[in-house]
Amino acid sequence: MTEPETPKGFAEEPQKPYSSRIRDELLRKPPKFERLHVGDGGRVVIPAAMREEMGIKPGDDLVAHVENGELRLISHRMALTRVQEEMAKYKKPGESVVDEFLAERRAMWGEE
């Protein structure tokens, strides 16, 4: 009698390497969910299509936080953009916060 076939898991069939010739295909339909492996030192590789969708490349900085048990990653650039958009509602039209700050400092230092 033959032994039943052992189901293949993530370790037996690792993620296929990224190929630049299938880049356009990957970008058309980036994965919503992808099973990732936590390696030595807690390292996780972000799949190429997800990196493309996030607009990140090797060497970029990410901001990470845990929310309700989920790890959330956002590019540093996108985090900065979100903060700027959120703070824009407090700025009056035509107001230059930088100019006001510099004027206050010059007055404090006696430079005006």
Could you characterize the architecture of this molecule?
The chain is 35% helix and 11% strand. It is of the alpha+beta class. The protein has a single domain (20-109), classed as Pemi-like Protein 1, Chain: D (Ribbon), CATH 2.10.260.10. A two-stranded antiparallel sheet has the order 1-2. The longest helix is centred in the last third of the chain and has 13 residues, at 76-88. The model has no long low-confidence stretch (mean pLDDT 82). One of its GO terms (molecular function) is DNA binding.
Question: Based on helices, strands and strand pairing, what is the structural class?
Answer: alpha+beta
Characterize the overall form: elongated
Strand order of the biggest β-sheet: 1-2
CATH class: Mainly Beta
Classify the helix fraction into a percent range.
25-40%
**What is the number of helical segments per DSSP (H or I, 4+ residues)?**
4
**What order do the helices and strands follow?**
HHEEHH
The protein's oligomeric status is single chain
> How many independent structural domains?
1
First-last Cα distance: 95 Å
CATH architecture: Ribbon
